[in-house]
Every structure is written in C-alpha cells, then in structure tokens.
From TrEMBL:
Name listed for the protein in its UniProt record: 5-hydroxyisourate hydrolase
Gene3D superfamilies named in the record: Transthyretin/hydroxyisourate hydrolase domain
Keywords from the UniProt entry: Hydrolase, Purine metabolism
Entry annotated with the keyword Transcription regulation: no
EC id: 3.5.2.17
Domain Transthyretin/hydroxyisourate hydrolase: 6-148
Top-tier EC class: hydrolase
Family annotation (PANTHER family): 5-HYDROXYISOURATE HYDROLASE, URICASE AND TRANSTHYRETIN-RELATED
UniProt cross-references to NCBIfam families, sorted A to Z: hdxy_isourate
Matches recorded under Pfam families: Transthyretin
Taxonomic lineage of the native organism: Eukaryota, Fungi, Dikarya, Ascomycota, Saccharomycotina
Role noted for this protein: Catalyzes the hydrolysis of 5-hydroxyisourate (HIU) to 2-oxo-4-hydroxy-4-carboxy-5-ureidoimidazoline (OHCU).
GO biological process, one term: purine nucleobase metabolic process
Subunit annotation: Homotetramer.
Length: 149
C-alpha cells in the first residue's frame, strides 16, 4: 500500500520520543474559502471524520482507515476511489484531530496535560504535491505544528 496523501507525525518533546498509539482523526471541513472577508466562511461545522488511525511506534500515521459508511460522494470529495484507494488529494479545508489527553492519561500524566486534544485546521489549494505532512511537536503544556515535507 502506498503512503496516503496526508500523513502526520507526533514527537513528544516532554519525553524526547515519538508519541506512539495516539488516536488521530481526519476531517474534510469544506471547500476552499472564496470570500476571505466573510467571517461566516470561517466557521467550522461539526462533521464526522472520514478517516481514523493510530500513530505507530515511530509516532507516524502513513495510512488511514476510512469510515465504512462513507458514500460515493463523500469519497469523491476527498479523492478516495470507489475501490478504496486514496491516491489523489482534492483541494479543500481539512482538519486533523489528535487525542492527546488520552495519550498522556495512558502515560499516567493526565494531571499534567493542558490539551485534551489538538485540532489542526489547514487548507489544501491546488495540490502541487501529492503529499501533505502535518507534524505535531507536543508536550504536556504546549504544542506546535508546521507544514512538513
């Protein structure tokens, strides 16, 4: 299986190690915002994730498990073929949600965790690449992210 068009990587900076077994969800929020001056265009509506995964021992998600009840239109919107392959990335606004509170709870650090989850919302315009990588540098009281390669 090839690598998905969107991948992620979590490094736990409080331990200096990859964050393994973190539950992650991927959402298609909506189409690209055409009227940048319209505040309502920036509202994020509640949606179901279209894909889920857990980070591996290296803190990475390279492939996702798609929601089994996705219909043909939902698959087409994000570029998933009818056969279930995700080789094409479609433009739009996406969100990735990391269940960081559960991760720290399982490490017995729940009382030290400020973020029960981290949501990163980003846009993918006319994809110049076939791959977008979302790294998350995480500690118990802070996080940072950037467009990876």
């Amino acid at each position: 299986m090839s690598v998905a068009p969107i991948t992620c990587h979590i490094l736990d900076t409080s331990y200096g190690k990859p964050a393994a077994n973190v539950a992650c969800s991927l959402y298609y929020v909506g189409p690209l915002i055409e009227d940048a001056g319209n505040e309502e265009a920036y509202e994020v509506k509640d949606k179901k994730p279209f894909a889920m995964a857990r980070t591996n021992e290296d803190g990475r998600v390279k492939n996702w498990v798609f929601r089994p009840d996705l219909n043909a239109d939902e698959k087409a919107t994000v570029g998933i073929s009818q056969s279930g392959e995700w080789n094409t990335l479609k433009p739009g606004i996406y969100k990735i949600k990391f269940l960081t509170g559960k991760y720290f709870f399982e490490k017995k650090d729940s009382e030290r965790t400020f973020f029960p989850f981290v949501e990163i919302i980003y846009k993918i315009e006319n994809p110049p690449d076939k791959h977008y990588h979302i790294p998350l540098l995480l500690s118990n009281h802070s996080y940072t992210t950037y467009r990876g390669s």
